[in-house]
């Protein structure tokens, strides 16, 4: 299935892109993160267990257990710093 | 214009004009405002500008949810959140929050609540740009999480 991935702020810089369309079989956010970590380099480093980042699924904050469906928008970003 | 307004905009705001607009309802007896400003000392010591990034779509939804939560807690007549994005120079305003109510207690509390939750929930990210052109993403502060936590 196709997933629309978005990256913001420090993660956008680290990954060298602000979005991508990914063909994936990941059934959950956790499985997707494992797939991205397997790319190595900045992906393994920034998304490592213990690093602090947030995942939003269709513009709502998600957890590693959140299920994924075709066409979902998944955004990965650092903790927010507005205001 | 709707009494509850959310704006995410590169353009700046006129706080006086917004306060006057939210004061116009004859039921309003108290208007509280907060303006956040680009300061020199942030994570760096010689900040010349900020670059504000956000997540279009989620930002507006998130701010609307925060305003809805404030309205559930306090009897507000009106509220405004105007958050700027893009580049802002030292001394320029970043964000305006205005709350209006019949009495001051609700307006004060709701204004602080909106800022505390905006800082920890709404998907904005600040990058500091120094006078020499170096830049860095601002790190999230645990003190902000603490400020939002006290409302729970």
TrEMBL record, chain A:
For whether the record's keyword set contains Transferase, the answer is no
InterPro entries according to UniProt = Beta-grasp_dom_sf, MOCS2A, Mopterin_synth/thiamin_S_b, ThiS/MoaD-like
Identify the Pfam families for this entry: ThiS
Superkingdom field: Bacteria
A GO BP annotation: Mo-molybdopterin cofactor biosynthetic process
Keyword list (alphabetical) reads: Nucleotide-binding
- Pull one GO CC term from this UniProt entry: molybdopterin adenylyltransferase complex
GO molecular function annotation: nucleotide binding
Tell me the protein family, please. Answer: Belongs to the MoaD family.
Q: What is this protein called?
A: Molybdopterin synthase sulfur carrier subunit
Lineage in the entry?
A: Bacteria, Pseudomonadati, Pseudomonadota, Betaproteobacteria, Neisseriales
UniProtKB/TrEMBL annotation, chain B:
Q: Name one GO biological process term.
A: Mo-molybdopterin cofactor biosynthetic process
Kindly list the residue ranges recorded as spanning the membrane: none
Q: Which reaction does it catalyse?
A: 2 [molybdopterin-synthase sulfur-carrier protein]-C-terminal-Gly-aminoethanethioate + cyclic pyranopterin phosphate + H2O = molybdopterin + 2 [molybdopterin-synthase sulfur-carrier protein]-C-terminal Gly-Gly + 2 H(+)
Complex formation: Heterotetramer of 2 MoaD subunits and 2 MoaE subunits. Also stable as homodimer. The enzyme changes between these two forms during catalysis.
Alphabetized, the UniProt keywords read: Molybdenum cofactor biosynthesis, Transferase
Is Phosphoprotein given among the entry's keywords?
no
Q: What is its EC number?
A: 2.8.1.12
Which Pfam families does the protein's record reference? MoaE (PF02391)
What is the species of this protein? Answer: Pseudogulbenkiania ferrooxidans 2002
Instruction: List the protein's name.
Output: Molybdopterin synthase catalytic subunit
- Out of the domains of life, which is the source? Bacteria
Which family does the record assign? Belongs to the MoaE family.
The broad enzyme category this protein falls into is transferase
Q: From the UniProt record, give the pathway where this protein acts.
A: Cofactor biosynthesis; molybdopterin biosynthesis
Keyword NAD included in the entry's annotation:
no
A GO molecular function for this record? molybdopterin synthase activity
């Amino acid at each position: 299935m196709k997933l629309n991935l978005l990256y913001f702020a420090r993660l956008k810089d680290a990954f060298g892109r602000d979005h991508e369309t990914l063909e994936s079989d990941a059934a959950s956010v956790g499985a997707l993160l494992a797939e991205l970590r397997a790319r190595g380099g900045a992906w393994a480093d920034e998304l490592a267990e213990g690093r602090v980042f947030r995942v939003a699924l269709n513009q709502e904050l998600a957890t590693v257990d959140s299920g994924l469906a075709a066409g979902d928008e998944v955004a990965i970003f650092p903790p927010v710093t507005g205001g | 214009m709707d009494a509850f307004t959310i704006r995410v905009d590169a353009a700046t705001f006129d706080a006086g004009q917004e306060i006057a607009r939210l004061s116009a309802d004859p039921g309003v007896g108290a208007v509280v405002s907060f303006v956040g400003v680009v300061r020199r000392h942030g994570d760096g010591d010689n900040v010349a500008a900020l670059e504000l990034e956000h997540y279009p779509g989620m930002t507006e939804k998130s701010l609307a949810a925060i305003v809805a939560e404030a309205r559930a807690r306090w009897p507000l007549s009106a509220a405004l959140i105007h958050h700027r994005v893009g580049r802002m120079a030292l001394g320029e305003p970043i964000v305006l929050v205005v709350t209006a109510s019949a009495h001051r207690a609700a307006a004060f509390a709701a204004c602080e609540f909106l800022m505390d939750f905006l800082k920890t929930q709404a998907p904005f990210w600040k990058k500091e740009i120094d006078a020499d052109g170096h830049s860095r993403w601002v790190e999230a502060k645990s003190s902000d999480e603490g400020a939002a936590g006290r409302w729970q």
